[in-house]
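[Automated response] Your request has been received and processed.

Submitted sequence:
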Amino acid sequence: MKFALPHIPERLSSRFRARQQRHASAARFAFCLLAACAVLPAAAQTTPASPQTPSQRGQVIFSRSTDQNGVTTTTVDPGALQSDPGGQAVQAPVATDAERQAVTFTEFNMDVHLRSATHEIAVRALLTVRNDGSAPIAHIPLQISSSLRWERIRLAGRDALYTVATLNSDTDHTGQLHEAAVKLAAPLAPGATQQLDVTYSGAIPQSAQRLLAIGTPGDVALHSDWDAIGVDFTGIRGFGNVVWYPASSIPVVLGDGNRVFDEMGEHKLRMAGARFFLRLTVEFPHGQEPTVALINGHSVPIAITEPSNGGQEIAGIATALLDSATLGFEAPSLFVAVRNQHHADNTVLWTLPGDDVAVDAWAAAASAVTPFLQGWLGQAPRAQLTLLDLPDPQDAPFETGALLVTVVRQGTPDQLSGVMAHALTHAWMSSPRAWLSEGVAHFMGTLWVEKQMGREKALQALASGRDALALIEPSSPGVSAGQPLAQAISPVYYRTKAAYVFWMLRDLVGDPALSAALRAYSPADDAARGLGPASGSGSFEKLLEQAGLRRDLSWFFADWVDADKGLPDISIGNVFLTPVDQGSHRQNQSDTAPAPEANGWLATISLANSGYAAAEVPVTVRNPDTSITQRILVPARGSITEHVLIQGRPTQIQANDGTVPETEASIHIRDLDNPESNLPPPTPPVQR
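Generated structure:
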């Protein structure tokens, strides 16, 4: 779908036109992101949902405008800036970007109280933050959604002084954050930590204001930003959707390239390794007790207390606890819902009554995929996959760890098994590192396509993301640092590029060794090596070596995982064909080399790589009767010449088959239409 731009008179500045185009691009991106995330096509739905207007489901809590120079200003309801006596409302932020980037949260200890009937949340949290910057900081910036209000902040048992400013930031669905800049008695030195005791509260109704502000159609915006607190369904997905826990980030807005999505990735990377505790209390109307609670994707038991008397006016209480968890590459999320429970192979489904009819089809898909995953990843998963039914058939899916929040509706076996191949992989293979967690899931999804429809279809599915990867990769290491997989913050890296990495590792080490390394992987052991922006690639390279590998992979991890050197760019150079017979071949080959038939041909092939990443590519020599494939390591910024022996005159040379991503194309074919032209030049006669 394309969004039409309004007519812009020529007298307006080019900067204004560029801003309008960026906003339209962001609107298109938001819609495309929604479409790309859809688990099933709309055709699978039996009863289309009628579009709802923003007034039916959204709430506007502020207004903002942008002048012709691209400067954004905001008008805020004065009540939004109310705070406790220790805080002071200000019109301009006090904290600096350097302070926002320096703050790393290392521990959350949270008491969260939800009043579902009124969409309200009240939180008290003990936070531990560390200064990861290079200089002391005078303030600790703490940000929450603009629909929430700071009530109290304490340091060392005493009320702290802080200012509260409203920031324009589309990392929250309202498009704004309330930032408390906590004044420190003494600057916090680099590497030092500080504990804070904070209290805040407010309402979290549904709001699609950030998407509406850039021109996204109302129904599309609301089905993307569905986060809200409610009786039947509470879903708040964390930073990037709803900032319901304290965060520290640089303000970014949609329409400014990929900055919002980069900031979301930076936030997840900086949070990795933090300790997380949460005690949850939910007030619910009589007779509407929640049946499922999920914190950071983990299902937690619910204890229900209904009043013995007092009638329907007295709320019931539900409590749950997540104790001693470590965050990986994720934004903390919270889901509480009234749903029906169903069980399938390694899967628990929580559905609306109207969607119970679809459970058998999803259970069949889980049963079909399970033996395939067992063959690759081990007999039993590390956790159960949880499927949580969304309230509206048009709502966009969401995934975190072994939780898939989606619409549980009817679909074809191929559709559902494809979804389950990816989703169930997260139940088998959990990792705090995005390139392993998401990369393996994407890899297994393409392997399932290979199993069901063949290798060509699998490579087509893999190649669907190559153009985006080639576009974002640096042309050379000197142009930019790119995103090494170990610190990747963009899905095109930790999903698309990581999936390519596992396809290449499969060809390098073989299925048995790769499967053994995946089975031996331990999330806890890997996390002990360190997480976050300064971490390395983890333990996986060692696991491959321990799986019985007898070759050095350090070059591969150096070029493809530990650093981002861009993509290779392979080309076929000179090709010379030489007929050989058994005797001449034995004179030029070792005694252990196999002897060809009398009609053997030796293809001498030159390959060049103008990229900065080395690559081992499959090279296939074929003729109408046979073909032979040999893997050749082509060095970065270099070339290599190899000899391939084949029975019969070669008619075609192919370098790469799509398993190695390249800058321009990932398959190179040279047709040898005139074989004589590829013969080496004749030797001139010796002059006597």
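Summary generated for your ticket: Residues 1-83, 585-597, 675-688 have pLDDT under 50 and may be disordered. Residues 597 and 634 are 29 Å apart (CA to CA).
If you did not submit this request, please reply to this message.
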